Amino acid sequence: MKPPAIPLEQITALTPIYKFTIPSAFLDENGHMNMRWYLAIFDDAGYPFVANFGLTLDYHTAHRTGGFDLEHHLHYLKEVREADAITIYSRLLGRTAKRIHYMMFMVNDTQQTLAATFECINAFADLTIRRTAPYPEGIAAQIDRLLAKDLALPWMAPSCGTMSA
User: Helix-strand-coil percent breakdown of the chain, rounded to 5?
Assistant: First the structure.
């Protein structure tokens, strides 16, 4: 897959949500970051991402709620190597009463490249019954505020085209 034709400056204008430096333990026999660590990094970045609209670990614990990933697509675009510094940026693409659709972008700050993209459908969950549930009103309002900001961006997100909230 060709990297999306989005200037890096437009991606890095998004709010950074996670920074990480790649340790040697993340390398595979090819001398670059093994594919399993991309998903782990995007997963770690998910916590500060959803905290932006109030879904912190404390909130989930207090309300016995959580989030369920329903589908995701990961595109590996450029190598990431030991000691490379990366930053994850996020962008909301849509939502329903129970789900959000979003993308994350892994920028290799060391190489000044877009290294990977992650697209996801995530559902809010009531853990007392282990089922998806509508977002609480206050959380939904915060999601809508961030979604409106992201939908107003002057560039199209490079989504796969088959996923939607």
Answer: 30, 35, 40
The count of domains in the chain is 1
Q: Are 98 and 32 in contact (CB under 8 A)?
A: no
Residue 133, domain extent = 8-151
Residue 83 lies in a domain: yes
Answer yes or no: is 162 within a domain.
Answer: no
pLDDT 10s digits, 12-58: 999 999 999 999 999 999 999 999 999 999 999 999 999 999 999 99
In this prediction, residue 5 carries a pLDDT of 78
Entry pTM: 0.95
Q: In CATH, what number is assigned to the domain containing residue 125? A: 3.10.129.10
User: Taking the CB of residue 160, how many other CB atoms lie within 10 A of it?
Assistant: 12
